[in-house]
Amino acid sequence: MGTISSRLYRSAALMGLALAGSMAAQAQTAAPAEAPAAAPAAAPTPDNTYSFNVGLISDYRYRGISQSRLKPAISGGFDYSHVSGFYAGTWLSSIKWIKDAGGGSDAEWDVYGGYKGTAGPIGYDVGLLHYHYPSHHLAVSPNTTEVYGAVTWEMVTLKYSHAFTNLFGFADSKNSGYLDLSANFDLGNGWSVVPHVGRQVIRHNSPYSYTDYSVTLNKDFGNGLSASAAIVGTNADKTLYVTPSGRFTGKTAVVVGVKYSF
């Protein structure tokens, strides 16, 4: 749930001035030639990078399932990264599903850390993520810890997340897994489109396993402001994933959001 940044490197070349013919000879005789001016050096990449973000979304969907009872949610986070590839962060969002399940928490608090690197043309990302629900008061704890690993080639990313604990309050669900395949197509001028398909397997709770899918259109307006619009859906069991009023939380819907990073 947390998110994640790229760095661009620039290089500058020296430009020489050439003088031709007798005019050049006369100029060199009359006065010393001026040395060619060097372009300004690119600023060095900082060893440590920090960023904050706040967001508002029409429906907080996680792996295709609404966490906010099909209603808007507000979120905020902090990220740290080191030039070596190590990173850490935290993210907080409003939710409603814990209270819908008879608990007391109305917030999700995530803490994560990992390492990003490259091996030839392949990028990779490995890390640990903990989902915490303060004062949840549920019989089976929804607090979940997952290890994840992802590989990226060009615009395609394949990621797998594995739960070391019970998964989001499902009893006897340790070692559940989620497989995520997505692509990021840069359309230019700050626009991108991201198709995605994922498969959530909940160990010893197979009726709750499902596939989710989405297509997201993103727009980066610059200065930290971005927006998104996504078509999101699942094939989850409509009798199992429901709000107290009986609404299906995995239904196909359009979800829009806005985020500001600084």
Written overview of the protein:
- With 262 residues, this protein is mostly beta strands.
- It has a single domain, classed as Porin, CATH 2.40.160.
- The chain is 5% helix and 49% strand.
- The protein has two helices and 15 strands.
- The strands form two sheets. The chain has a twelve-stranded antiparallel beta barrel with strand order 1-4-5-6-7-8-9-10-12-13-14-15. A two-stranded antiparallel ribbon has the order 2-3.
- β12 and β13 form a beta hairpin.
- The longest helix is centred in the N-terminal third of the chain and has 10 residues.
- The protein is globular, with a radius of gyration of 25 Å.
- The N terminus is likely disordered.
How many domains? The number is: 1
Span of the ends, CA to CA: 18 Å
What's the number of helices? 2
Q: What does the main sheet amount to?
A: 12 strands, antiparallel, barrel
CATH T-level topology: Porin
* Structural class by secondary-structure content: mainly beta
Determine and state the CATH class: Mainly Beta
CATH superfamily label: monomeric porin ompg
Q: Which geometry do the CA atoms define?
A: globular
Beta content: over 45%
Low-confidence stretches: 1-34
Helicity level: under 10%
Tell me how many strands there are: 15
Radius of gyration: 25 Å
Q: Helix and strand string, N-terminal first?
A: HEEEEEHEEEEEEEEEE
